[in-house]
């Protein structure tokens, strides 16, 4: 099945998710994400941010309601999706080059195709000089760069990211945020990003979705109309500060019963 060009990238229609004992995690999620957007989900712990990503990826099914990815079910769209977790999840016995080519290997791509693709992506993320190193030899930021390269190796149309930079220092996080936007501009994928950082959400996104907890539901949606490309200087602008203040206020409101 192929994706239609005129359908949204992601559609949530009255989606509800509960787990085993009946605990309601998400309730009544209605949302459309268009191709090429960078949408961040932010909200207090336990509001269902990570569950949203799992539903999109097909890792867990909705309890009720409908989710469509490029007009398909998440299961049917799985080959078009890549997932980046908070932990880089690199295989310690494989070199950086071999880790980046893992997805292509699972797709049975030829060895030369894997090597060429890995080399291109390692150059893009600035790791070509450590291609033969092992994960234990890399810094936290370098591991996340390798994880991003691995996710992009299969040419995804949709990139899901669950707080990928949360464990990094602020300077490294800011640098990787810029790198992520550069890669998106070059490759054109849609991104759905989970974060606890208001500044990170404002810097990266075209829209920010604030979730309210108990159960998780949409509290507010903020369009981010700051121009691209975005650099670190944006953090010092009046427009950035104003939007960050609005999102922070919305987060505080979301915690109120």
Describe the structure.
With 257 residues, this protein is α/β, with parallel strands linked by helices. It has eight helices and nine strands. The protein has helices spanning 49-57, 96-100, 102-106, 111-124, 140-152, 170-187, 198-204, 238-254, and strands at residues 10-19, 23-33, 38-42, 64-69, 81-84, 158-162, 190-194, 207-212, 217-223. Helix 5 (140-152) runs parallel beside helix 6. The N and C termini lie far apart (44 Å). The model has no long low-confidence stretch (mean pLDDT 89).
Main attributes?
single chain; 257 residues; alpha/beta; Rossmann fold; six-stranded mixed beta sheet; three-stranded antiparallel beta sheet; 8 helices; 9 strands; 34% helix
């Amino acid at each position: 099945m192929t994706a239609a060009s005129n359908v949204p990238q992601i559609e949530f229609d009255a989606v509800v998710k509960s787990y085993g004992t009946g605990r309601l995690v998400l309730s009544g999620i209605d949302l459309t994400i268009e191709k090429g957007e960078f949408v961040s989900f932010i909200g207090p712990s336990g509001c269902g941010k990570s569950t949203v990503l799992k539903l999109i990826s097909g890792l867990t099914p909705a309890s009720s309601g409908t989710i469509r990815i490029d007009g398909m079910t998440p299961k049917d769209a799985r080959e078009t999706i890549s997932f980046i977790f908070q932990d880089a999840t690199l295989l310690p016995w494989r070199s950086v080059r071999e880790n980046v080519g893992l997805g292509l290997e699972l797709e049975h791509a030829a060895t030369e195709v894997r090597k060429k693709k890995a080399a291109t992506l390692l150059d893009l993320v600035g790791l070509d000089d450590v291609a033969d190193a092992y994960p234990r030899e890399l810094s936290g930021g370098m591991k996340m760069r390798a994880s991003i390269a691995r996710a992009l190796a299969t040419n995804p149309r949709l990139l899901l990211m669950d707080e990928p930079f949360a464990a990094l220092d602020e300077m490294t996080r800011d640098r990787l945020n810029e790198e992520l936007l550069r890669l998106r501009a070059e490759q054109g994928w849609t991104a759905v990003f989970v974060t606890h950082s208001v500044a990170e959400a404002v810097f990266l996104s075209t829209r920010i979705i604030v979730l309210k907890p108990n159960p998780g539901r949409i509290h507010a949606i903020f369009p981010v109309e700051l121009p691209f490309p975005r650099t670190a200087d944006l953090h010092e602008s009046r427009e950035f500060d104003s939007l960050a203040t609005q999102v922070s206020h919305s987060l505080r409101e979301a915690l109120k019963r």
